[in-house]
Every structure is written in C-alpha cells, then in structure tokens.
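Ticket #4471: structure export looks truncated?
Reporter: QA, pipeline team
Priority: medium

Steps to reproduce: submit the single chain below to the structure queue and open the exported record.
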Amino acid sequence: MDRAGTETLLRPARPRFAVGAVIAVAAVAAVTLLGYPIRAVAPTLSLAVVYLLAVILVAAVCGRALGIAAAVASALAFNFFHVTPTGTFTIADGENWVALAIFFVTAVAIGTLADLARSRTIDAEQRRREADLAAVLARELLGATDVDAALPPAAAHVAEAVGVPSATIVLHEARGDAHHVAFTLDAGAQRRPATLLLPGPLPDEARARIAERLVPPLEAVLRSALDRQTLQREVVETRALRRSDELKTAILRAVSHDLRSPLTSIITSADALASPVLRDDERDELVTAIGQDARRLTRLVDQLLDLSRLQAGAAEPRPDWVAVPELLTGALQAINARDGEFRVSADPETPLVQLDAGQLERALANVLENARQHSGGHEVSVRARAVGSRVVIRVVDRGAGIPATELERIFEAFYRRRDDRTGGSGLGLAVARGFIEANGGRIFAESLPGQGTSLVIELPLPVRVEESAR
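Actual output as written to the record:
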C-alpha cells in the first residue's frame, strides 16, 4: 500500500477551511473575469452555466458547506457584474429575478450532489483500502509458520494504513497509557485477548473508525492464523507420534528376531555343553558358536545404543588428529576380518583428518561388515585417497547391486530389502551415516543391479591441511 493514499483510509483528506475559502473565492473570481469575453458572444444568462462549474469544483474539492457558499457568492457576483444594471445588486427585469433564483437553487443542489458524490467516492476508496489491508494482513499472518514472527511486519502495515509512525500487536492483554492507545482484539475463546497498540493520543473520530473498520478484520485474520498454527502443531505432533510408534514397532521386531536368534543359539549351545557324551571337537564347535553369537549380539546392542544416542542428539564428536589407514585397520579388526575378504589400498600421501576416531571407526566397521555380507563371497575392495578438500573412502563389493530407487533407503534405520537374505539388523548403515554426518562428512551409495555396490565416504580436510597442500 502506498503511503500517499493511506491517509484517506481513516481520515478523509480535505483542505483546511481557510484554504477551501481561498479556493472558492479564486474560482468565483476566475469565472467572473471569464464572463466578460463570453458575454460578448453569448447571452448574459448563459454565464450561469459557467458559474455552476465553479460551484461543482468547490463542492467536490472542499465540501458541501463551501460549495453552498460558492453558490451564494456566484449568484451575487453574477448579479453584480453581469446582470443589468451592473455594478449594483438591483435587478430591474423580473425575468432576471426568476433566472437568478433558479440559478441559486440549481447551484446549491449541484453543490450538494457534488459533495455527496465525493463522500461516496471517498467511502468506496476507504473500503477498497481496508480490503487491501485485510488481504495484506492475511498474507502476512496466514502465510507464516510462526505467528509471533509475523506480528511485527503485520503491525507495520497497520501503522502505514492508519498513518501513524508505528504500531504493535501483542498476543496478550495490554493497557493504553498517555503515549499509546490500546484496542483489544478477540483472539478466540480458548485464548487470552490480544492487543493492538497505536501511538496516542488519537481523535475520537479516528478511534471510532479504527474500532469499527480496522479491528474486526484484524481480529478475524489473527484468529484464523492462530487456529492454523495450532492445527499445524497438532499435525506435527501427530506425525511425530506416528513416527515414534513406527520406530517402536521396528525396534520390537528387531528385538524379537535379531536378539532372540543369537540368544536361542547361545542357550542351546550352552545346554549341549553339559552333555557328558560330547566329544572334544563338538565341544570346541559349540564354544565357537557361542562366541560368534555373543559377538553378534554385542554388535546389535551397540548399534541400538548408537542409534539411540544419534537420534537423541547425544553423540557429540570429540575430534582429534587421526590417520585414515589407522581407522581402516581398527575397523577391520573390529569385524574380525579374515585374509582374502578385503583388499585395502590407501594412498600414503593421504593427510590426517580431524574427527572423532571412535565414532568413525564404528561407522567404517558397519560399512565394511555390510559390504562383506553382500559381496557374495568375493573380495571387497577398499580404497582411500585425498581429493581436493576431502578424503574419499570407497568400499566396493561385487554383490547383486541395489536398484536406484533404494540407494537412499538403505541408510534408513531397520530398512531391509525384500530379497536380503543376509539376516542383518538394518541398523549398520543408519548408524554409519549418523556418525559420519556428525563429524562433517557424508556417505552415499552408487550401484547398478548385477554389478555390485560402491559405498562412498567423504571426510572433510581441515583448513590448515588444505592450505598446506596448495
């Protein structure tokens, strides 16, 4: 809304009385002077039409009172300067009396109609601007996700419309004082009243107009915005609860299957160890099975705990300088990698990275374990080297590959592909992504069905290392 037109929203813009009187006198004088050349080519009585133009102008610009005054002045000037005998207010001809009377009545009527038309025009313009203001307020408040943050710009539009330096909208009840006028806003039955504060004092007419024309639409928009915000919060909470229920269900499924399977195996093997007829080789085999299942169970519990910490935001990294080959060696040891399962190639020029070694080692262990499970018995290739401002670790298996639609989903907690027969928990890659991103890196998958999968890890290099490498 433009500033020049907003002042008519609450106060019709008319000139002051003294200015209007000067305009009326000037208009009558100008028409009187114009009458002399016109009288030379047209009947004297036709000059009344020219005087009517002055009356219409004054009434439209300055209002009805000055329009009537201009009609009286026009009648007097017409009589004095142009009706015979001129130079006197005496009228010799009775027809001129009738003509002058008709002129006067017509001038007063036209002045009144012109003022009425002006008032209607002003009222229509005011209502249009009020509608524009309501639309602006609706856009500001209904389009905002946070109503509190949208209140200052909405109040600025109100101040511009009212023609005051500033305005404030608060979502609580406030009282006016010597410097502020308070307008109470109904924010809804379930809320405390809001308040519109304007600089004061304001004339009674302006206060009444604001209360009648501006406050109701502002109340309606504010109530709608607050109701919308409440509904949005309820939707978010409902989604969060639904997501929480889904997560709990997934965890229960993981607990019921992935935890129970190794526990059942351990219990069965332990019971078998008590048999007196057990041979030594059978006993060794059962002990090995118990150790494997116990380690599997430990990894699953660790992954559940890591995921819980990541989702709670409690996995704050403790960065320190570490070599990438050391991280790979620790990760391979953590998963008890055997000869022939992995082929590791790390560029000896790879700089040190600054991150939480424990978190990255667990992340790498999960990635390597995932690649081993899906390699189809083939050797997994692991390569690490510096590329620009980051260190890139690429873990490539020769398994069945992953469809493009699932390349992102494999990093979701508890997600398992339907054709996955490895028996994994669906937690390893989710935990890996959480730890890698917590340390400023990223991980993504590249794959073509039937041609294996590459899991790519990018770790940032500190600025000091980047500058020294240049």
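Status: closed, not a bug. The export was complete when the record was re-opened. Leaving a note from the reviewer for reference: Residues 320-469 form a domain with the Heat Shock Protein 90 fold (CATH 3.30.565.10).
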